[in-house]
């Protein structure tokens, strides 16, 4: 799988760096000038980073070529993963700005969506600008990213999307109070989380013993989800590493008082005009089943075109089961954009 990295620098209106990566395979370059081929836009979950999507995308591309002789196999140009500015590599670039107003302890889902929107309007060049507004876009978001990708298409100026696929989105149509216990547990977990290791090898062993992450996801986390420690005075401290998304920034994301509600409002609007699919795990280890059922309830007025539950999966589907997620994504994507789907023609 090929990739290239892009950095959109700050300006007077938005004093934060936004980083993104484009992923594709050489065989996909034949689709780059095909008006019927799709471009994927992916947003990640809290405490992770843009590279956490790599294993899923690798399996997804493999699946597309396995299925390419079938009528339902979608054509794709490439995938873009845009990083939340207080996560991963971006958090290091934005370290000083995040310690000052207007971003100090205020970063949430809406600001992630705004950063992605700005990147899509102003970045990147090859050397001519890549105009996302001319692409057939499919938005995919996990957890926090599911909220962000729900908000993104409603920001002005509008960037049109053909479809959205939400994976375990942190959306509660009956109000944020329904997630109060979950938020309290997540904040406590972030507060108690270990955040320093003597080196990356030690960190790798720590996570390998305590998580069910896919090995490729874990390797990417150790490489991109951690950063070199700094002493006062900003001097590197030997080979010690710490969390790229700090505990404080993670807790700030969980405390976001408005993002999930804004996401529901946006989803209510979007689901009437473009196909929307939702993927859940069948283990409710984070989001209560009642909240998920309310999100996809046909009586709500939201038009969710496809709902799938992945057997054996909990909330962290991209981290635990990237191969299975890629297969379900392909199935949902094909269903949403089939020619007989009336919403896909709007």
TrEMBL record:
Organism: Boletus reticuloceps
InterPro entries registered for this protein in UniProt: AB_hydrolase_1 (IPR000073), AB_hydrolase_fold (IPR029058)
Signal peptide positions on this chain: none
Keyword check for Aminoacyl-tRNA synthetase: no
GO-annotated molecular function: hydrolase activity
Alphabetical UniProt keywords: Hydrolase
Residue ranges occupied by any AB hydrolase-1 domain in the UniProt entry: 40-326
Protein's name in the database: Alpha/beta hydrolase fold-1
Highest taxon, organism lineage: Eukaryota
